Amino acid sequence: MATIIDGKELAKKIRTNLKVECDELKAKGINPKLAVIMVGDNPASKVYVRNKSKACDEIGIEYEEFLLDENITQQELNDLIKKLNDEKEVNGILLQSPLPNHLNINQAFKTISYRKDVDGFTPSSVGKLAIGEDTFISCTPHGVIKMLEEYNIDVEGKEVVILGRSNIVGRPLIQCCLAKNATVTVCHSKTKNIEKHTKRADILISAIGKAKFVTKDMVKEGAVVIDVGINRTEEGKLVGDVDFENVEKVASYITPVPGGVGPMTVAMLMNNVIKAAIEQNNEKSTF
Ligand code: NAP
Question: Do 178 and 170 meet the contact criterion of CB atoms below 8 Å apart?
């Protein structure tokens, strides 16, 4: 039976440490602040945003929400981002996705100052990650790497197979794993014979958004299995991409859903806000 990687517990530990850091910053007159922009009325986004606001409260990070009408123009959205870029009190800017179809999310991301890009989605952050420079790392991939580190799972020289190549999970994960000297394979919807790849994996990370896609016969005995997926079954139950009950019988380590990668994502966002506050108040920063 696999060891369960407890993301909830680990995220709690990270948030506790961040609270100490945040208190220290406040004692120096630095008040870390996150601004969150949400456009329209997406129920899932509301839940994500509420979780982020709760985490900020717990740590002592100031939090301001901008709820924009779904008919807002690109210009109006970009103007708000520019205004927040210029506000000294705001350390981090987060634009909650998805946006309504008439808005171009990449254009909006490009408008966010890389110094406040706590989600790590701007071309500048993505580029810096790719060339190995210090930057904000997208929160979910960062959370995955942190989990592996905390459980002393060595990535160097390992065959890492990533399912999914999205800009927010799969692609940054490739860079994070390469930086740790893994041999990385990326699979996507056009990959043929996917199990041929997954069966080779020492570390298998799934981020595709398909309930119970990864079955026991796709996993090598003793593999580490990280499940990023969040899916709802017809009965409304939250499940990952991995058939947990069966895969845990062959894996050495496995993350549950819920309680795995999800809480780590929010913790790494908080980590990035504190990092932003430190960098923006460091006169010698070249970040
Ligand atoms: P996405 O943008 O929809 O990307 C999905 C990726 O999976 C794409 O690269 C797609 O391939 C690939 N894919 C889809 N069906 C596939 C199949 N049958 N075989 C192989 N690859 C397939 O999704 P995302 O935003 O990365 O999110 C992925 C999952 O992670 C979702 O369930 C999401 O809810 C979850 N998520 C969780 C967290 C967290 O904090 N735990 C954070 C973010 C996302 P193509 O590129 O070829 O289309």
Answer: no
Residue in 96, 117, 128, 146 annotated catalytic: 96
Give the pLDDT mean for 68-85.
98
> What CATH code is assigned to 139-262?
3.40.50.720
Atom of ligand 1 nearest to the CA of 170: 26
Query: Could you tell which of 10, 139, 185, 189 is best to mutate to test the pocket of ligand 1, judged by most ligand atoms within 8 Å of the CB?
Result: 189
pLDDT of residue 81: 98
How far apart are the CA of 29 and the centre of ligand 1, in A? 41
77-89 residue pLDDT tens: 999 999 999 999 9
Q: Does 107 participate in catalysis according to the annotation?
A: no
pLDDT tens for residues 224-271?
999 999 999 999 999 999 999 999 999 999 999 999 999 999 999 999
Q: In the chain, which residues fall in CATH 3.40.50.720?
A: 139-262
- Tell the residue number behind the tokens 């706590």, with chain if given: 118
Q: Are 186 and 200 in contact (CB under 8 A)?
A: no
Residues of the chain with CATH 3.40.50.10860: 28-116
Residue 153 CA to residue 144 CA, distance in Å, equals 11
CATH number for the segment(s) 28-116: 3.40.50.10860
Q: Reading across the β-sheet that carries 183-187, which strands appear in turn?
A: 3-4, 253-254, 224-227, 203-206, 159-163, 183-187
